[in-house]
Design brief:
Structural class: alpha/beta
Shape: globular
Oligomer: single chain
Number of strands: 25
Helix content: 25-40%
Largest sheet: 8 strands, mixed
Number of helices: 12
Strand content: 25-35%
CATH architecture of the domain at 425-531: 3-Layer(aba) Sandwich
Length: about 525
């Protein structure tokens, strides 16, 4: 068993706030020291916003939990200073294979084009990522940033007072109270804060259960995602296999609805299922076992006054598609720059309503894709199963059928179509993938890659065009990045399309705010105002 689970990374220590005669007031409090909460805190600290993280635990999560981290998540993590260790430790993969019964019907490549700093996915146990996040927090502290984690600090009550949130916190030394100008709830799918505020999810709970087993073994399977429909070792159900670092393999086995979860998790019941899949001759050890139920649900709104929900506390999806942790980090990527502008007095707090609008849109997209995957994986009627099996049979020899196969549409970042922060598209012939609202795709440069050059604020990107060094509007500055590109380079293909030149205004979360054929100061200023909610 990996001993990392037993080591306190942020042990409890009594804080001066616990002895204050009146509740201490903090700019931002984050509840939850998982990947989403710590990513939010790191982003705030890097932006110069003081932040306190409260968690009822003092160590990393038990078990690998989230393991599939998408390219966009790696890009966000890189900006926050922990992407490189994720990429170095993680098992890279771009290829997936789909099996029906005992035969492979087809395979796919999630990133067939070259010119990206990161792969489509890495597989990495969540406990490693939490280690890297805590190490990043410590590095920021050493550099003088106002960020802290308080372990064994369990939030037991939250009250929104309009201009702040009041928290009651229980510790090994008893309760104390804090006040927060802003509270970010990243306290998981069972979110105590959501319950304390009388809020709930809307959506679907699917009548099916899946066994997760982390297995330590030596195996010569390639570093690919393998998904089975109706395999001989789990007849009538489905299965999934992923490789992780340290000789750990993730196996998901569909069990059906009417089961006793506690009984099914017992090693004497898990091991025979795994032997049926792997063979009696394969030696393995169980590292972690859990059972999950498909759920595709979200809160109706993610912002409630001074309390803002992110990650699993705001939305849940079934794990096929890797949309949970990946969408959670995209939540914080969307939120923090907006919250920074509000705190600095450069934007009204109504800007935070666009976090709600954009990330609810993203959650609905994830839920739709996840629900469709679940319906395909677990047909609810005999005619649905007949249709699914026919699609799988056809997909072995006919390309037209393969897009209909749904073993989990894998996570992609959302395009914020129709966002109130988008301005017009004034680039005739521009690529669809970089239209307003879209996340910027990476591209190789003469030295390095594009995304690390976009910085932490607004960027005015010029390709084969003249722009000033900076444009300032309403207290917000967009700094210049000048590049040249000729077809058929990746940069030209991804940002110019059929246009000879382009100017992009790019938000701090690396989504496109507007684009144009040449620099137009009036248009850029208007787009900047719109992007911070002032137009």
């Amino acid at each position: 068993m990996n001993k990392i689970f037993e080591v306190p990374l942020y042990p409890y220590a009594r804080h001066a706030d616990q002895d204050a005669t009146s509740p201490s007031r903090h700019r931002v409090v984050v509840v939850g020291a998982g990947p989403v909460g710590l990513a939010a805190a790191i982003d705030l600290a890097q932006s110069g916003v003081p932040v306190v993280v409260l968690d009822d635990n003092d160590k990393v999560s038990f078990g690998s939990r989230a393991i599939c981290f998408a390219k966009r998540t790696l890009e966000i993590a890189d900006r926050l200073g922990f992407g490189r260790p994720m990429a170095e430790k993680g098992v890279e993969w771009n290829v997936g294979k789909v099996f029906f019964g005992d035969r492979k019907v087809y395979d796919f490549n999630l990133l067939p084009e070259d010119g990206h700093q990161f792969p489509a996915f890495v597989n990495l146990q969540q406990y490693y990522i939490e280690e890297y996040l805590v190490a990043r927090v410590r590095a920021l502290q050493e550099a003088g940033a106002a960020i802290e984690i308080r372990g064994k600090n369990r939030v037991t009550d939250v009250v929104d007072h309009g201009d702040h949130a009041a928290l009651t916190i229980n510790t090994p030394d008893g309760p104390y109270q804090l006040q927060a100008d802003w509270l970010i709830a990243c306290d998981g799918a069972a979110s105590p804060i959501r319950a304390q505020m009388g809020l709930d999810f809307v959506g679907r709970v699917f009548e099916d259960n899946f066994l997760i087993a982390d297995v330590v073994m030596e195996a010569d399977f390639p570093t690919e995602r393998w998904f089975w429909f109706d395999p001989p070792f789990n007849k009538g159900q489905s299965a999934l296999l992923h490789k992780q670092p340290d000789g750990v393999w993730r196996i998901d086995l569909q069990l059906g609805w009417d089961i006793d979860k506690e009984v099914e998790k017992k090693p004497e019941n898990v091991i025979p299922r795994l032997k049926a899949m792997l063979g009696d001759e394969v030696e393995f050890q169980l590292e972690w076992v859990s059972i999950y139920t498909f759920q595709c649900r979200r809160m109706e709104r993610f912002r409630h006054g001074r309390v803002i929900f992110a990650g699993d506390s705001a939305h849940q999806v079934s794990p096929f598609g890797a949309r949970g942790a990946n969408s959670g980090l995209q939540d914080t990527d969307n939120l923090v720059w907006k919250l920074k502008l509000v705190i600095d007095g450069l934007a009204d707090d109504s800007l935070l309503d666009t976090y709600d609008a954009e990330r609810v849109l993203a959650a609905d997209e994830n839920i739709l894709n996840s629900s469709r995957s679940t319906d395909f994986i677990t047909p609810k009627s005999e005619i649905s199963r007949v249709f699914r099996d026919a699609v799988l049979d056809l997909s072995e020899h006919h390309g037209f059928a393969r897009p209909l196969v749904n073993s989990g549409r894998l996570s992609l970042p959302s395009v914020y179509e129709g966002s109130p922060l988008n301005s017009g598209d004034c680039l005739p012939g521009g690529p669809v993938r970089t239209r307003p609202g879209a996340p910027c795709p990476d591209a190789p440069l003469d030295e390095g890659f594009l995304l690390p050059q976009l910085g932490h604020g607004f960027t005015l990107l010029a390709i084969n065009a003249e722009i000033p060094d900076a444009v300032q509007e309403a207290g917000v500055t967009a700094t210049a990045l000048r590049l040249s590109a000729e077809a058929p380079s990746p940069l030209a293909a991804r940002y110019l399309g059929e246009a000879p030149a382009a100017v992009y205004l790019i938000r701090p979360d690396q989504h496109v705010a507007t684009r144009m054929a040449c620099f137009d100061e009036t248009q850029v200023r208007a787009a900047l105002r719109r992007a911070i909610g002032k137009e």
